[in-house]
Amino acid sequence: MKMWLGKKIIFLQTLLCFSIVGTNSHGLKEYHFVLKEAHYRRLCSSKPILTVNGQFPGPTVRAYYGETIYVNVHNKGKYNITLHWHGVKQPRNPWSDGPEYITQCPIKPGGKFRQMLIFSIEEGTIWWHAHSDWARATVHGAIYIYPRKGESYPFPTPDEEVPIVLGEWWKSDVSDVYEEFLRNGGSPNESDAITINGQPGDLYPCSKSETFKLNVHYGKTYHLRMVNAAMNLVLFFAVSKHNLTVVGVDSAYSKPLTRDYICIAPGQTADVLLHANQEPNDYYMAARAYSSALGVAFNNGITTARIHYHENHAPNKSPSLPYLPLYNDTKAVFDYYVSIKGLNEADPYQVPTNITTHMLTTLSINTFPCPENQTCAGPNGTRLASSVNNISFENPTIDILEAYYYHIKGVYHKGLPKFPPLKFDFNAEYLPLELQIPKKGTKVAVIKFGSTVELVFQGTNLVTGIDHPMHLHGTSFFAVGYGFGNFDKHKDRKTYNLIDPPLMNTILVPKNGWASIRSVVCALPSRPPPLLGHGDCVYCDEWGRRC
């Protein structure tokens, strides 16, 4: 049996705070993103893929701490699309955040949209990606945010910076993969390759000549700006015979952590230092998936890239692979995550201790009965689904942000439960089948301005237990705790790290376990800006376009 998690947790983002480039006549930095198809050859065959400016991965966006930039998006593709700036807080500017039907209607084919990116407390590496269907498989890129001009990193300045974007490649058209599993109610076919900077690596057929190579000089330090752009794969990453020093996660600096491997979940980013201090030779960097769910198919291949020392040496035609934990080594994953500590002096906020709003949300794989006269590929002929507190999200026809701002009724409903409406042993081995069927709805949890929030994500064993990567838009949060089994508020809060937890925007919730985060609600929405190419109207037609 194959499974897929398509998780959406909807808070009304307006109430949460937390290429081609140039400058315009006012001195503001502008990027121009053109969505268009381009042909790429991988794994012995070619196919057209959707790209930004013909690049895969897409162009890197660069900014300084606190800077505001603009991105002019022109959709020359075949489908509606939006772009999300993953980890950009966008204070008082949710209108440019990007998730379709949440903060905006999609950009129709031929349409344009001007997005304003307001960088506030971010510093380090984050990323951008499409936020429509599965377009982000090829439409994504890194964002580098540098310290304020004249200021330095909280670590010795590296000699060079290098993007390391981890992803996946399908021989089939990604939209066909997406449409097939929507049609049959099963899970998507697993990818044909994992990639590093768009390349499968020389362990895959027809890939050796194009394998990404990082040329290094002995004694120098390289800043790896890492992004996990894979659709649903948690990945281990390592470099043979070299240690890696993590100095930041999700655009917030952390205390230096030196390991022989790192773990990075979908949507997460990391700032990692690689010291070229080994015997001059060729070495592999490599990544492979972590998957603890029973009976869930996944890509178990290994992607590679090469590190080549400039200094003279006899070429090493067959470098050894680095140590990577076993695919189901849960201990290796969470030993790594709990070892990441925040850099207190760099954090603009202290960890909230006076909590005014408590929330506990269950994260479940679910099923719906197969409609009449259809054949479904989910367990026992059902259709797979997912839920938050037993609510399976339904897309509205008008984006929620504008419905909220303009008081349009009937688009969404308040009342996303703050605690599980169904209480049971969430991680029991056997659970009643009737618990597998969730309710459908477009619900939001509205949180008061100034609230301090503790949110516990609780995994369940409905259908099957899996790890859940969870991302909150418009905010960063302190990752204060992880655990296994059912969360116990009396016992588990005693294990929290309230001294130096990392500041993150994406957290991995363990299979049949929990993860706890804390944050502060501190921004209200500004008036919506003029929308280039869309006029001033609110409603969307049946194609998701503004009227």
UniProtKB/TrEMBL annotation:
Gene Ontology MF terms: copper ion binding; hydroquinone:oxygen oxidoreductase activity
Pfam families, per the entry: Cu-oxidase (PF00394), Cu-oxidase_2 (PF07731), Cu-oxidase_3 (PF07732)
Matches recorded under InterPro entries: Cu-oxidase-like_N (IPR011707), Cu-oxidase_2nd (IPR001117), Cu-oxidase_C (IPR011706), Cu-oxidase_fam (IPR045087), Cupredoxin (IPR008972), CuRO_1_LCC (IPR034288), CuRO_2_LCC (IPR034285), Laccase (IPR017761)
Group of enzyme by EC: oxidoreductase
Domain Plastocyanin-like: 36-149, 160-312, 437-518
Keyword entries, A-Z: Apoplast, Copper, Glycoprotein, Lignin degradation, Metal-binding, Oxidoreductase, Repeat, Secreted, Signal
Protein name, per record: Laccase
SUPFAM superfamilies: Cupredoxins (SSF49503)
Protein origin, superkingdom: Eukaryota
Organism per entry: Glycine soja
Cofactor dependency: Cu cation
Co-factor remark: Binds 4 Cu cations per monomer.
EC number: 1.10.3.2
Localization per Swiss-Prot or TrEMBL: Secreted, Extracellular space, Apoplast
